[in-house]
């Protein structure tokens, strides 16, 4: 279903942008309230729930034991995928995975994978025979804006609190999965002609293209993605890149607080 | 909304719940008669007026009725008509002949395009929910400025108040033009401070419109209103 | 039903492995209106099961061929999240969830006053986030609360509940072990006010007497769950109208 964009909404967003204001009164780089909860799903070896404004995301980590790929006999594997099921909103329709849900899963996957936070060789049980396959599944229950950042936050929080179920597979005692860093995503959407952080559903409806930036602990880039119709300049990117650095540091603290529990 | 029972005990009922014995009473909307008893079919407040028992639903989808004043959004344009999103299950149809302009065949697009917002009236609804709209009438026009908000359809009456008292008060406080459509869409136009205050008042009605505390919460919000003439 | 006779499911003192009496339910918590973007929604925790349901609509039924000129259709999707069980579930087409979706939709069509919305569709989305036996019943309960929350007219609040048989004893509300190693499972959808049944499945082995006892347990439990559903809806809208 293609969402109908009222011309008045685009007009209003443009007018607000001129006064550096937002429709819900937030500052340009200000996020909505975020709560993060981990270990919240009984059958997940790691799990997280993120409530970000009115956006609600669950992520669960599962392990499976499998034989390694022949060319990498001592490496396990990591896969992250997202399901954008029709519960997430009126505009989502049933059917095979949409390009949107595949993009969502792959962008989050790249950020985590490329940060190198999981040492694939540590997932090896018996070289050439048995390795762990780690699967992060993201479930979007409610998409009310900026679901990419919320999904990435849920995924890394679930991963960082995951317990390897070695006992259940008869290969020793359960242990905490070693995750070396905390890659975090910050996304920006063009609303009323300029970029803002954490767009609401209304801002996304009346907005244009978006840019997703995933940064590692040291502030290095691990994944980038430009989505939707629109173009941007290097200067605009430089501006949001700076903001992304500070937003990612703050979001990383949310994850660290959960691990302290 | 529930005039005639002020002070009476308010009763929230759920579907299937027995409201009371039928004993000669008439059954209104949101209820049905079964084995000499009146049964609620919707989540809402029991209302008894002139021997008719009905349930005022807390939530419902907008179902157009002829005569409704609504805020619609153009969804499709053809040579000689527009299809309008009316915030209900089905689109409404606005034929060229009921537009406020003299439209040549094939020129509908020159007057209104997709996404344009209008005040319209529901001309006719048939039993299959086909909806015909009209823009001929006082105040019916394309809205070229301002913003649109959504509220639950059942709270529309609360925003208007008795004889539009609440609506007049809101307009007065924020010095904005405000129009409330029967289909749960509200149009606001004014300066930045006024619009922003009106937005919070409408959002309050969306969240708490069904609560006893609504009036008090609205009065509290009134104290935060921008002073007239400041802007 | 596995029906493996060698797994002990009842203790010496007559209680079940988790300490419940034979006619005792697992604890239930319900919350209405948990998803801000949906027309109606509900969250149900029943034992270790967690189900979330959302309702969208009524909306125009698409494609046209599914439209009914005299009533609405109810489009149910029951789905288990990949991380809801101990072994991951591969997302995608699944015969079990298709069947449950179909019979759940038909059960809901029996309570919703469908004639009110010709040519329309009401979408009911049921997501199981955590599974511990009996998810279809938890899904039905969640769907009913979500439909009521959305203001959809219904003859009653449908309640999902199950009884079964373990070690030749009829018990209410099977948990995971009892489901895996028990002898029968009887999930039903009950209209608590009218005493009618809108959903019925069963597998395993039950004598006529055992069936009657299991149904008796189900009706008793449905009344209890109904109270919790009503309470959830009232809590959501407390404060009252004037």
Explain the overall architecture.
The complex is a heterotrimer of chains A (261), B (231) and C (242). Chain A is of the alpha+beta class. Chain A has one domain: GHMP Kinase, N-terminal domain (Ribosomal Protein S5, domain 2, 2-Layer Sandwich). Chain A has five helices and twelve strands. Chain A has helices at residues 7-18, 99-114, 147-160, 201-205, 234-260, and strands at residues 34-38, 46-52, 55-66, 77-83, 124-126, 130-142, 163-164, 175-176, 184-191, 194-197, 210-215, 221-227. In chain A, the strands form three sheets. In chain A, strands 1, 2, 3, 4, 5 and 6 form a six-stranded mixed sheet that branches. In chain A, a hairpin with a 2-residue loop joins β9 (184-191) and β10 (194-197). The longest helix of chain A is centred in the C-terminal third of the chain and has 27 residues, at 234-260. The radius of gyration of chain A is 19 Å and the shape is elongated. The mean pLDDT of chain A is 95. Chain B is α+β, with helices and mostly antiparallel strands and 231 residues long. Chain B has helices at 108-111, 156-160, 165-174, 192-208, 214-222; strands at 12-13, 18-21, 26-27, 31-34, 37-40, 44-49, 52-57, 69-77, 81-85, 92-95, 117-125, 131-134, 142-143, 147-150, 177-180, 185-189. In chain B, the strands form four sheets. In chain B, strands 8-9-10-12-11 form a five-stranded mixed β-barrel. In chain B, strands 1-6-7-3 form a four-stranded mixed sheet, with no helix packed on it. In chain B, α3 runs antiparallel to α4 and α4 (192-208) runs antiparallel to α5. The longest helix of chain B has 17 residues, at 192-208. The two termini of chain B are 35 Å apart. Chain C has 242 residues and is α+β, with helices and mostly antiparallel strands. Chain C has a single domain (28-236), classed as Ribosomal Protein S5, domain 2. In chain C, α2 runs parallel beside α4. The N and C termini of chain C lie far apart (53 Å). The model of chain C has no long low-confidence stretch (mean pLDDT 94). Chains in contact: A-B, A-C, B-C. The interface between B and C is large, with 39 and 36 residues.
């Amino acid at each position: 279903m293609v969402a109908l964009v009222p011309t008045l909404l685009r007009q209003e967003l443009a007018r607000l942008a001129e006064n550096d204001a937002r429709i819900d009164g937030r500052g340009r780089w200000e996020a909505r309230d975020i709560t993060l909860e981990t270990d919240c799903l009984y059958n997940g070896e790691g799990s997280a729930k993120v409530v970000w404004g009115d956006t609600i995301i669950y992520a669960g980590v599962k392990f499976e034991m499998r034989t390694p790929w022949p060319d990498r006999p001592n490496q396990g594997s990591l896969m992250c995928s997202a399901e954008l099921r029709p519960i997430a909103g009126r505009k989502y329709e049933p059917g095979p995975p949409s390009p949107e849900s595949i993009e969502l899963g792959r962008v989050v996957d790249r950020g985590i994978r490329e940060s190198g936070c999981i040492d694939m060789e540590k997932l090896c049980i018996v070289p050439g025979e048995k390795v762990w396959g780690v699967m992060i599944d993201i479930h979007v229950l409610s998409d009310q804006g900026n679901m990419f950042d919320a999904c990435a936050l849920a995924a890394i929080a679930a991963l960082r609190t995951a317990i390897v179920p070695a006992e259940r597979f008869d290969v020793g005692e359960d242990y905490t999965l070693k995750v070396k860093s905390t890659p975090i995503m910050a996304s920006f959407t063009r609303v009323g002609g300029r970029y803002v952080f954490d767009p609401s559903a209304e801002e996304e409806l009346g907005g244009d293209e978006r840019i997703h930036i995933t940064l590692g602990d040291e502030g290095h880039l691990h994944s980038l993605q430009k989505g939707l119709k629109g173009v941007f300049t290097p200067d605009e990117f430089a501006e949001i890149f700076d903001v992304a650095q500070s937003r990612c540091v703050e979001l990383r603290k949310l994850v660290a607080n959960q691990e302290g529990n | 909304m529930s005039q005639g029972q002020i002070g009476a005990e308010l009763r929230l009922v759920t579907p299937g719940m027995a409201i009371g014995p039928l004993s000669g009473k008439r059954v209104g909307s949101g209820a049905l008669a079964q084995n000499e008893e009146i049964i609620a079919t919707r989540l809402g407040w029991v209302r008894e007026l002139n021997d008719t028992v009905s349930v005022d639903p807390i939530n419902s989808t907008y179902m157009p009725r002829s005569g409704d004043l609504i805020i619609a959004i153009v969804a499709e344009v053809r040579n000689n008509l527009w299809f309008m999103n009316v915030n209900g299950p089905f689109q409404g149809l606005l034929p060229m002949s009921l537009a406020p302009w003299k439209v040549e065949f094939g020129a509908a697009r020159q007057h209104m395009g997709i996404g344009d917002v209008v005040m319209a009236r529901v001309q006719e609804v048939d039993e299959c929910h086909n909806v015909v709209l009209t823009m001929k009438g006082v105040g019916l026009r394309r809205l070229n400025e301002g913003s649109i908000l959504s509220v639950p359809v059942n709270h529309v009456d609360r925003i208007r108040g008795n004889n539009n008292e609440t609506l007049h008060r809101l307009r007065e406080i924020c010095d904005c033009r405000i129009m409330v459509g029967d289909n749960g869409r509200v149009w606001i136009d004014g300066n930045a401070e006024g619009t922003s205050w009106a937005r919070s008042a409408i959002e309050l009605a969306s969240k708490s419109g069904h609560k006893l505390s609504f009036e008090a919460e609205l009065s509290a919000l009134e104290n935060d209103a921008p002073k007239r003439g400041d802007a | 039903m596995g029906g493996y006779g060698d797994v002990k499911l009842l203790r010496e003192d007559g209680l079940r492995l988790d300490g419940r009496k034979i006619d005792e339910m697992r604890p239930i918590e319900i919350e209405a209106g948990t998803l801000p973007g949906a027309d109606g929604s509900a969250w149900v925790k029943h034992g270790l099961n967690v189900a979330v349901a959302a309702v969208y609509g009524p909306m125009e039924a698409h494609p046209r061929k599914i439209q009914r000129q005299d009533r609405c259709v109810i489009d149910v999707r029951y789905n288990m999240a990949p991380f809801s069980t101990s072994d991951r579930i591969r997302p995608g087409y699944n015969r079990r969830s298709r069947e449950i979706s179909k019979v759940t939709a038909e059960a809901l069509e029996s309570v919703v006053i469908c004639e009110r919305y010709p040519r329309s569709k009401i979408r009911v989305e049921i997501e199981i986030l955590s599974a511990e036996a009996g998810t279809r019943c938890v899904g039905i309960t969640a769907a009913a609360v979500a439909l009521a929350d959305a203001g959809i007219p219904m003859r009653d609040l449908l309640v999902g509940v199950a009884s079964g048989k373990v070690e030749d004893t009829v018990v209410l509300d099977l948990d995971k072990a009892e489901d895996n190693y028990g002898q029968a499972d009887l999930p039903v959808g009950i209209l608590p006010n009218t005493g009618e049944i809108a959903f019925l499945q069963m597998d395993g082995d039950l004598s006529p007497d055992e069936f009657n006892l299991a149904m008796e347990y189900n009706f008793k439990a449905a009344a209890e769950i109904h109270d919790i559903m009503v309470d959830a809806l009232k809590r959501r809208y407390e404060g009252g109208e004037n």
